[in-house]
Amino acid sequence: MKRLKPGLLLLTIAPCFLWAQPAVHPSAQLSYKDLKFPPLRKVTLPKVTSATLSNGMKLFLLEDHELPLISGFALVRTGNLFEPSDKVGLAELTGTVLRTGGTEASTGDQLDEQLENMAATVESSIGQTSGQVSFSALRDSSDEVLRIFRDILISPAFRQEKLDLAKSQIRSAISRRNDDPEHIAEREFESILYGRDTPYGRRVEYEHLDHISRDDLVAFYKRYFFPANIMLAVYGDFSTPEMQAKLERLFGSWNYRQPPVPPFPEVRDQPSRGVYLAVKDDVTQTFFRLGQLGGVLRDRNYPALEVMSDILGGGFRSRLFRKVRTELAYAYYINASWSADYDHRGVFEIRGSTKSRSTTETLEAILREVERICTTEVSDEELQAAKDSVLNSFVFHFDTPGKTLYRMVTYEYYGYPKDFIFQYQKGVAAVTKADILQVARQYIHPESFTIVAVGKPSDFGKPLNALGRPVNSIDLSIPRPQRGVKQSDAESMNRGRRLFARVQEAVGGVSKLTSIKDLTLVSTMEISAGSSSMKARKIERWIAPSIIRQDQELPFAKIAAYFDGASGWLSTPQGFGPLQGLVLQQQQGELFRLFFRLWLSDRDKECTVTGFPENILDISDSKGNHVRLQVDESSGLPVTMSYQMPGMPSDVGNIEERFGQWRQVDGIKFPFERHIRQAGGGEITVVVQDIRLNAGLQKEDLKRRP
Predict the structure, then answer these.
(1) What backbone torsions phi and psi does residue 311 show, to the nearest 5 degrees?
(2) Burial (CB count within 10 angstroms: exposed 0-12, middle 13-18, buried 19+), residue 588
(3) pLDDT for the residue numbered 381
(4) DSSP 8-class letter at 34
(5) How far is residue 536's CA from residue 541's CA, in Å, rounded to a whole number?
(6) 21 Cβ partners below 8 Å, 6+ apart?
(7) In the chain, how many domains are there?
(8) pLDDT tens-digit map of 263-275
């Protein structure tokens, strides 16, 4: 990666900087208050053609000829609120396997390859109150992509191996759900407010997954996926009459019927006043949420409530930011929002984090600010700034044709008037200081707040009971499944054992693998991101079974990490410290994926090996580590290994490693070349320079700081 010399950087920027200066007298002093900005453009709604196909499916079409692209989505009235209480996760699994399970004509993997070759996508998901199947394509390939989209929507196959994979991924997420303290605070806060035993507050457990079969997915799909229950929207570079006729040909013969879908269950108030503490001893901060149930978007007072929450905690100029962060220096970030959903009550929440010592003092300061906004009028300046912020931000929901169409179809889906956006804008513009005080007094009840804190109470400067409210403990334990292995899982595990034994034999055999006591691996790496690249060197040393040391030499830094299976340290140019958080999880993953350990996973009682058709092998452990291997039919050697990096969303955290140049070292085969690709961009080519086995490495040598 090339870096500009400081002098060159200065020379590059200076001419542009000088050219951009306004012509003012040298003695003049400019203020940000002198800056003048033109008003944001008004929101205008494009002409959307709506129609109903002969089978009852509602259709929305919007032409946009700026780019040769065509995209669309089907909105299905379904959601996880309709799941049986003993099968939580059914909707999510149905939404996932709808696409990954392929169609009756093609497997999901075959569709992946087809779509990739056309630079197209088709995706599916089911959330809380809607399901969605979407597509995106170049205009020239849109006919073929629309056929795939149609087949996924009306004839999904729900293949068993893809259901098993999706369940494995959810199990992995369950095992890691207590890793991120901020996520714990968010999850527990909403679960307590809505009620843990209600459709809005429950969460998926291992036990639920064991109750879900392929037949359940098929039945859930058949109940909710029928033409009269679907809104289909398409936008892009097409002629409206031609597209309508094309969609009639594609979907017109799909005449499947079901009774109308019932309303979603209502949200009911739960007795949740008090403080709830989740003990997490491996953190130095406390992550918190406090608040109450919020409202619905169509509420008459929603505009005033949103402006009120913006004044309280909407940004750098908000009261909470100025008081808690700037003046008291308790929190790095803090935010408040009045959340309103389309068809059920959202939550009013104040969220943030603080150093452990100031936990109770931070919560006290927040409650004082909430009391203040409920008892005294805001200033004219606060009101105007908040109204401008709320109105200006809303424009960006309508800055592309795709966003605009999605918003308009969503209004239709939830039964909102077509001009709701304009009603909302007028409502915000009309909010007064008296309105803010009135809605704060009427809707905000700090004495009844639910307060959730995730942290290490032994480090708190003042105990939480100083808040004068009952303190309840949150149980973070993860229930283990109570049932035995289902027959379908047993078949997959038997298939996995057979395929795994073949891999073991192909790489050298179990006796050779178990004879390895230590390893030294020296590699070069070429790291590419876009048009930039850099080279690095990596030395990995391992002592069986669980000690690993990694040293990386980058052009600008040296990084070293040591891990003994439970704890370790990290050394970077920024300093030396213990492994913790996501870095600790990443080291656990590195150890789990080390080939000479991975090939003996069947001997580890903490690991599960599962096999699927088409020579696919899944290996996972009780810590949430998981890999998927594609095994070559002829050689028995792995071709690819894919996995998810902890703490990263799937659109950037999915990793695929492709293996090549297998060579034998002391009777063991090892890939001397690996191509690592990260979702969202970025590739690493790893070339092995040297492998040494059983060189007599000692723990003290690996543990020694650089």
Answers:
(1) -65, -40
(2) buried
(3) 95
(4) G
(5) 17
(6) none
(7) 3
(8) 999 998 888 889 9
- Classify residue 571 by burial, with Cβ atoms within 10 Å: 0-12, 13-18, 19+: middle
Question: Which residue range is the domain that position 496 belongs to?
Answer: 487-703
* CB neighbour list of residue 379: distance below 8 Å, 6 or more residues apart: 433
Block residue for tokens 């109204």: 387
Between CA 214 and CA 358 the distance in angstroms is: 50
- C-alpha span between 480 and 281 (Å, rounded): 22
Cβ burial, residue 598 (10 Å; 0-12/13-18/19+): buried
Choose one of 473, 496, 516: the last residue of a domain: 473
Residues 423 and 568 in one domain: no
Query: Is the bond preceding 22 in cis, omega lying within 30 degrees of 0?
Result: no
CATH code where residue 409 lies: 3.30.830.10
Q: What is the Rg, in whole angstroms, of the alpha carbon atoms belonging to the chain? A: 29
Are residues 445 and 511 located together in one domain of the fold?
no
Instruction: List the alpha helices (DSSP H) in 569-704.
Output: 581-593, 595-598, 650-653, 699-703
Tell me the C-alpha distance between 631 and 499, whole Å: 8
Residue 576: strand, helix, or coil: strand
Pick the closest to residue 270 from 196, 336, 344, 199 (CA basis). 196
pLDDT of 648 reads 60
Residue (of 410, 387, 405, 389) closest to 341 by Cα position: 410
Q: Which residue has the tokens 């019932």?
A: 262
Encode pLDDT of 295-344 as tens digits: 999 999 999 999 999 999 998 899 999 999 999 999 988 999 999 999 99
Q: Torsions phi, psi of 240, nearest 5?
A: -60, -50
Would you say residue 35 has pLDDT above 50? yes
Give the type of residue at 396.
F
